[in-house]
């Protein structure tokens, strides 16, 4: 599996930012193990980076690698949707497993 | 009283958009956000760009442009023809883009809660970076399409407006309307930036597009009410025509100028006043253009300048005809005492004609302006648009303190009046009527000074004829009545004397 390169844009240390960070870290630890590289960027500290990347909403998660590029907006509170957004399939297996139980 | 003085009302900043500052009585409310709403193609983006451009050109105020729709590169290219070099200003640190336009082929998924904090941070950053005094946000509608929760977007835009206010920067937000006369804007935007609302319209009226702007409200400060026509022209952008802003305060002089015809001068009690508006009305071919040519030639004789704006005849026709009356236009032009501008009325809208005429007058600085004919311009406009045009033009001419001679063609051969006259007769100082008179199987021509403000004048209807030297005015039609109504009736001289006796 290729290494994931992720960037998370947040605006200041708000509860929502913290929530997004912890949600993302949880997903990464659980589903990506060591195969990821996560960078957290605070828009208030680096507005020019946000300008270059044309970020409007925060939190915004950008998956640079592996292609295709993906953007996920929000506090990432639904890990299944996040994984889908990252083009990851393991979750679907989990769901199927659950559904198959009588 | 002292308490009252401490409270300073809402200040305004001049936008620099021609005509708009007059309509808005000083510009946009300072440090506030104004909503510019309009349908597609109503020049919202031009307004937004011009607000910043004029700030940079005229006031040395830098500006931030937040674009939600078009990529910055498109805007740079689109406004070059209006005379604004945005790329150069960006290099000089006077202009900054916040690019919030959609990224092609890059979709996003929404998972959980979010806000537009990054956008706000970017705007603040751009404003601080270049020390901006002005912000334009264009156009807000597209952001509602990209984020599914309109309530959230509204709330975020409200936050932006609040921050803008805190930074004491003057902002405009443009928004789409779906119809010309209906809700102010989509998504209820007006409810959160409702301090000030301006509506731009682009209405199809009698097969012609007519642009107008209206200040719907300015909270806590005054403005002119109603719709004002405007146009978008090359190298200038939006130019509004503030009608009610026109003031009746032109000076009037008692200096008389010659009409170019000694007999006519005598009829008018010694000539026209120097800064008056003269309307010459008559049916086709009865001598209006000849009278105007004489009026222009008279300027040249006194080493003054005349401007002829011809909307009916080509240059060649005019020059040839003038030669027939003993007037050499070509020589006058070479000497610099005459400028002839021939244009098709249909070539442009009336607003554009007006702006063009104004710029020619400003440049050439004539002493006399001739418009031949106003009726031709009437064809290309709605009645309302024409009336506004005439008022704006006469007012401008009067302010320049030059004499204006307009011709107007009546629809009927004998008698009658034209729509043109109905609109402008009250504005004119002098009205000269030229009429055909049918007498014993012959068409003769009559002239009368119907009105001569501030002067005695001849009330007779006199006969005149035209030859190689121009116009010759003769005796009055003393035994004919009903010339002006187009039904001449011949009366015996005794009858006329009897009536005169009765009214003594």
Short key terms for the protein model shown above:
heterodimer; A: 102 residues; alpha+beta; 4 strands; globular; disordered C terminus; B: 504 residues; alpha/beta; 9-stranded mixed sheet; 17 helices; 33% helix
What does this structure look like?
- The complex is a heterodimer of chains A (102) and B (504).
- Chain A is α+β, with helices and mostly antiparallel strands.
- Helices cover 42% and strands 24% of the residues of chain A.
- Chain B is of the alpha/beta class and 504 residues long.
- Chain B is built from 17 helices and 25 strands.
- At the A-B interface, helix 1, helix 2, strand 4 and helix 3 of A face strand 6 and helix 6 of B.
Provide a quick synopsis of the model.
Chain A has helices at 15-32, 47-53, 79-85, 90-100; strands spanning 4-10, 36-42, 60-65, 70-73.
Tertiary shape of chain B: elongated
Strand order of the largest sheet of chain B: 5-4-7-8-3-9-10-11-12
Largest interface: A-B, 34 and 27 residues
Question: What structural class do helix, strand and pairing data of chain A support?
Answer: alpha+beta
Structural class by sheet pairing and helices of chain B: alpha/beta
Helix content of chain A: 40-55%
Oligomeric state of the chains present here:
heterodimer
- Extended strand count of chain B: 25
- The number of helical runs of chain A is 4
- Overall average residue pLDDT of chain B: 84
Extract low-pLDDT stretches of chain A. 91-102
Distance between the termini of chain B: 64 Å
Radius of gyration of chain A in whole Å, from Cα?
A: 14 Å
What is the spatial order of strands in the main beta sheet of chain A?
2-1-3-4
Average pLDDT of chain A:
80
Largest sheet, strands/sense/barrel of chain B: 9 strands, mixed
* β-strand amount of chain A: 15-25%
Low-confidence parts of chain B, pLDDT < 50 over ≥5 residues?
1-5
Distance between the termini of chain A: 33 Å
What is the overall shape of chain A?
A: globular
Strand content of chain B: 25-35%
